[in-house]
UniProtKB/TrEMBL annotation:
One GO MF term: carbohydrate derivative binding
E.C. no: 2.6.1.16
Catalysed conversion reaction: D-fructose 6-phosphate + L-glutamine = D-glucosamine 6-phosphate + L-glutamate
Source organism, top-level taxon: Bacteria
Function according to Swiss-Prot or TrEMBL: Catalyzes the first step in hexosamine metabolism, converting fructose-6P into glucosamine-6P using glutamine as a nitrogen source.
Localization per record: Cytoplasm
Domain SIS, residue spans: 43-182, 215-357
GO annotation terms (biological process): amino sugar biosynthetic process; carbohydrate metabolic process; fructose 6-phosphate metabolic process; protein N-linked glycosylation; UDP-N-acetylglucosamine metabolic process
Name this protein carries in UniProt: Glutamine--fructose-6-phosphate aminotransferase [isomerizing]
Positions annotated as active site in the UniProt record: K362
Keyword entries, A-Z: Aminotransferase, Cytoplasm, Glutamine amidotransferase, Repeat, Transferase
Assembly: Homodimer.
First-to-last residue of the parent protein present: 243 to 609 of 609
Length: 367
């Protein structure tokens, strides 16, 4: 039976744990046999002819798009505009004929996303959908479909759909970079192989679940929680905050670490947990200096990093989650997991209805 929780207490827990398997399944469709190159559906355009990408989505899918913006810009040197569908559709933004618009949706039925796609079509965009339901309205409306193979997602708070979306968007960004020759053949192979390693690394990340549960006891007592990150970790910070508020009903905000000093630092005291998403990448030192500011104001820092990051930033009072080292490009796919587990366990401790949080729907098919 499809709707079977197996040994898990909630669909969300089951879906969190399915991630290594569904990412593997998804990548099987997009990586060649020796994992050193990509294969994908034919594209109705040439990457060289695209001058700008427009990405539109809602909710968690929007945060997947935000990660992809950083990817397309950094490795494929393509300008990307991103917006939430409910804003995009009424903004009537002028788009250059023949450019690419990407729509991301688990269900393929979100009303605002469908309307945004219809608008993009009037602007003569090539429309590509990253979608989990093959026969959905969105899949049928676009010129090109890149499937996520997450299987049925039942928990209202999206987990495995998000990380499969990220995996498919990584494939698209790497494909664009290769076609536009903005990366070397070596880097191309390196990125493909790093992608192939994600499922095994995810298995490792899932082992920190007991630690997430411990941290969740602390989070469950908080009134406000701040998530910080830079670069693609900024998107994961916002996704982490969304996940937490959706299912635990604790107020949370995701903020760009560098923006902390322009407002939210005023909220910091010893009652506010601050979750820092900080893999040891090129931006680590910058994020670390923002976390230092939090610590100086007695904020309760929870640092999510790898062994190298923790070593670089010894501080006796930090609560720490250690993830395996990964390629800096693909870290958001791994760092999505601890924020899901923190939200999940916080909600379980609070006793909320994890799979069916109040006021929320799995798919928002009306405006
Ligand atoms: C609802 C769901 C979210 C989801 C969003 C977009 O708000 O509760 O989990 O991210 O819709 O849904 P879609 O199916 O378009 O990805």
């Amino acid at each position: 039976h499809l709707a079977d929780k197996g040994n898990f207490s909630h669909f969300m827990a089951k879906e969190i744990h399915e991630q290594p398997q569904v990412i593997r399944q998804t990548l099987e469709n997009y990586l060649n046999a020796d994992k050193s190159g990509l294969q994908h559906p034919p594209l109705p355009f040439n990457w060289q002819d695209i001058s700008r990408i427009t990405i539109v989505a809602c909710g968690t899918a929007y945060y997947a798009g935000l990660v992809a913006k950083y990817w397309f810009e950094s490795i494929a040197r393509l300008p990307v505009e991103i917006d939430i569908a409910s804003e995009f559709r009424y903004r009537t933004p002028p788009l250059i004929k023949g450019d690419l618009a990407i729509f991301i949706s688990q269900s393929g039925e979100t009303a605002d996303t469908l309307a945004a796609q219809a608008y993009a079509k009037t602007q003569e965009q090539h429309c590509l959908a990253v979608v989990n339901v093959p026969e959905s309205s969105l899949a049928r409306a676009v010129d090109c479909v890149f499937m996520t193979h997450a299987g049925t997602e039942i928990g209202v708070a999206s987990t495995k759909a998000f990380t499969t979306q990220l995996s498919v968007l990584a494939v698209l960004a790497i494909a664009a970079a290769q076609a536009r020759q903005t990366i070397s053949q070596n880097d191309y192979q390196h990125h493909c192989m790093a992608l192939a390693q994600i499922p095994a690394l995810m298995d490792e990340v899932l082992l920190c679940e007991h630690k997430c549960r411990e941290i969740a006891y602390q989070l469950s007592k908080a009134r406000d929680i701040l998530y910080l990150g830079r670069g693609t970790s900024y998107a994961i910070a916002m996704e982490g905050a969304l996940k937490l508020k959706e299912i635990s009903y604790i107020h949370a905000e995701g903020y760009a670490a560098g923006e902390l000093k322009h407002g939210p630092i005023a909220l910091i005291d010893d009652t506010v947990p601050v979750i820092a998403i900080a893999p040891s990448d090129a931006l680590f030192e910058k994020t670390a200096s923002n976390i230092q500011e939090v610590a100086a104001r007695k904020g309760r820092v929870i640092l999510i990093s790898d062994a190298e990051g923790h070593e670089k930033f010894p501080h006796p009072d930090f609560v720490r989650l250690t993830l395996p080292a990964t390629s800096p490009l693909l870290s958001p796919i791994l760092y999505a997991l601890p924020v899901q587990m923190l939200a999940y366990h916080t909600a379980v401790i609070k006793g909320t209805d994890v799979d069916q949080p109040r006021n929320l729907a799995k798919s928002v098919t009306v405006e």
